[in-house]
Amino acid sequence: xxxxxxxxxxxxxxxxxxxxxxxxxxxxxxxxxxxxxxxxxxxxxxxxxxxxxxxxxxxxxxxxxxxxxxxxxxxxxxxxxxxxxxxxxxxxxxxxxxxxxxxxxxxxxxxxxxxxxxxxxxxxxxxxxxxxxxxxxxxxxxxxxxxxxxxxxxxxxxxxxxxxxxxxxxxxxxxxxxxxxxxxxxxxxxxxxxxxxxxxxxxxxxxxxxxxxxxxxxxxxxxxxxxxxxxxxxxxxxxxxxxxxxxxxxxxxxxxxxxxxxxxxxxxxxxxxxxxxxxxxxxxxxxxxxxxxxxxxxxxxxxxxxxxxxxxxxxxxxxxxxxxxxxxxxxxxxxxxxxxxxxxxxxxxxxxxxxxxxxxxxxxxxxxxxxxxxxxxxxxxxxxxxxxxxxxxxxxxxxxxxxxxxxxxxxxxxxxxxxxxxxxxxxxxx
Length: 430
Description:
By secondary structure, this protein is of the alpha/beta class. It has 15 helices and 10 strands. The protein is 53% helix and 13% strand.
């Protein structure tokens, strides 16, 4: 078998490229179902976030695995062309190390961010539920999730924000009396900083975003990226009545929100608190606004001081994560090495079950109207067929185990069923 990952992220590709190859949640399910068409893919997990798309796969005897995976991605995304240079590709041990670094948030745009671990877990569960993980990925991804948790527990990498926008989001989250997933955000300005902050907010679960800008077309463009709604700048005060968070980054030479506007917003909200995040230089919000009851104001000076103070600390904590990752790599490699000495019947059982799952999926796809009970009955029946077909060969092989005939039987079964001693490629060179 061949363990590989094909992917692109914020370092390898521009956002317009990442957008083309990202998968929405419903697309992941559809893509996994279409992967059953690929006989040489025995296990697969698709990880797709705002900053990365990665396809992890266990391949069976593929001559050019990178080219093969690029073709798979083209097929899944209905892409006519694909820029190979935008993608990274790792095999075997390098693939394992990459996955563990992702789970530990060492590969993230924001070092130490916590969202990636839950996203990775969700990706694994989706693949597992689709029947697309087996022995190898169940070992690998469960260990990766454990690595991510251990790094966050045993280091301080997640304790301190390292960017202005991310710091602002964390402070907003701490200041609200409700979860961010239930919050409404109003963005004044449509530049890079506004977009970055909105990205972090959305990653934290924010679903409702309004954008207002002097140039309305720019407001519309940014709103579209976050499935939000554009608001004319003249109407932002009225819209603020429904906003829990206001982010400002307009580039205007004067205050956009002064004491008068802030008091009106506070009055419209009838005591409900509002968080104002001013990341503009020069500032968009008059500092006196911070004295208004119910208004929590954070400006760029306060945010940058927190970032600068914490940046070096987080980088130092990241160094403490490296031994955790390398220890976990060694543990997984050792587990995979044991796969190479598994009894032959275990290998045959694994292969038979992969075929069973694939054919079961194809059959159930043609029976969309059957009940869950009927699906379980068919699934159970297919399992019993495999079990009974293998019962007598398994009994016989156990009888000759340890005898001179065992090697002959191994060669025979290997040729008959195209079996390989799995895991041998992970063994360290002597």
